[in-house]
């Protein structure tokens, strides 16, 4: 993770080649970096983007979920939950500058921010069902809060990956921006949020999101048990193995 401060704005650039997949170690690093910025009194905003060309993030590292060690799987999921709690509940203003594909966990990271700008000709969405897995309730809550119930339930069931244009049309992202302007526009959008007194913006954000974060806090252990039980099922492991194979085939084909 490349993290630096530009005045009162923290910039986090995901930089885990080849595809910024989120494994246990990288999620832990992500959480430490965001918590550090959150606790930095001089930091009012965070921009999340990718240092890699063409990929924002490929989402959770599928290898963490394929033939897993159960203890590590539990730690992995705890870090995924924590990342969502940190981002969705963040007091600082957050902008996702999506400069590449953003499937599944990559989409969730951006949905957890306050504002999303995206470069053209990429795809974004919660494609979990395509892998034969099920997005947990807090993933669904987050997309539903962004695009509305009907569109979210349809997209979640199909595991639909939106093009940038489709994402803009349904409100999954807020603005389409040429890749060479994405950081400049992220700073402009940040300034708009800074024009509002921090405490008023923070309390309002909290009012909108707290009930969803509280829901996960209340069910956190059950959610982890559910994830571990689900992922370790033979049928799910088979589906995951097939999906990994299809990724490799797509590459060679
Ligand atoms: C109760 C149960 C709850 C379960 C909830 C679990 C929720 C899960 C959310 C997730 O995030 S699951 C992950 C979903 N992600 C994907 O489906 C993305 C798959 N990847 C792609 O579509 C493409 O790789 C890409 C991101 C569009 C990039 O394409 P590109 O052509 O540039 O690169 P590739 O050649 O396809 O990939 C390079 C290399 O990376 C490996 N890889 C890709 N994605 C992942 C990943 N998510 N995890 C691990 N590894 C990944 C890919 O297999 C290639 O590997 P090698 O062949 O080079 O070894």
Comma- or semicolon-separated keywords:
single chain; 2-enoyl-CoA Hydratase, Chain A, domain 1; six-stranded mixed β-sheet; four-stranded mixed β-sheet; 16% strand; binds ligand LJEIAPTW; Enoyl-CoA delta isomerase 1, mitochondrial; Enoyl-CoA_hydra/iso; ClpP/crotonase-like_dom_sf; Enoyl-CoA_hyd/isom_CS
**At CATH's second level, what is the architecture?**
Alpha-Beta Complex
Whole-number total of structural domains: 1
Strand content: 15-25%
Largest sheet: 6 strands, mixed
User: How many DSSP-defined strands?
Assistant: 10
| Small molecules held by this entry | ligand LJEIAPTW
> Ranges with pLDDT <50 over ≥5 residues?
none
Output the helix-strand order. Answer: EEHEEHHEEHEEHHEHEHHHH
Gyration radius, in Å: 17 Å
The percent of residues in helical segments reads 40-55%
Organism: Tegillarca granosa (Malaysian cockle)
Protein name: Enoyl-CoA delta isomerase 1, mitochondrial
Pfam family, one: ECH_1
Family: Belongs to the enoyl-CoA hydratase/isomerase family.
């Amino acid at each position: 993770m490349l993290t630096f401060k530009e005045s009162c704005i923290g910039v986090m650039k995901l930089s885990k080649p080849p595809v910024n997949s989120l494994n246990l170690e990288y999620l832990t690093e992500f959480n430490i970096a965001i918590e550090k910025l959150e606790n930095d009194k001089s930091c009012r905003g965070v921009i999340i983007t990718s240092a890699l060309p063409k990929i924002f993030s490929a989402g959770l590292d599928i290898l963490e979920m394929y033939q897993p060690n159960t203890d590590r799987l539990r730690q992995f999921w705890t870090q995924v939950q924590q990342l969502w709690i940190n981002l969705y509940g963040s007091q600082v203003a957050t902008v996702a500058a999506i400069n590449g594909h953003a499937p599944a966990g990559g989409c969730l990271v951006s949905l957890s921010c306050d504002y999303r700008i995206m470069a053209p000709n990429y795809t974004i969405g919660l494609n979990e069902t395509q892998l034969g897995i099920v997005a947990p309730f807090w993933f669904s809550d987050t997309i539903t809060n962004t695009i509305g119930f009907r569109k979210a339930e349809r997209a979640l069931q199909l595991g639909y990956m939106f093009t940038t244009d489709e994402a803009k049309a349904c409100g999954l992202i807020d603005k389409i921006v040429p890749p060479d302007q994405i950081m400049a526009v992220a700073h402009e959008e940040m300034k708009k949020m800074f024009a509002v007194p921090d405490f008023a913006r923070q309390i309002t954000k909290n009012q909108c999101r707290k009930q969803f974060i509280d829901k996960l806090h209340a069910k956190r252990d059950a959610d982890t048990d559910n994830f571990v039980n689900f992922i370790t099922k033979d049928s799910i492991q088979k589906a995951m193995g097939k999906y990994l194979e299809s990724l490799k085939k797509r590459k060679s084909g």
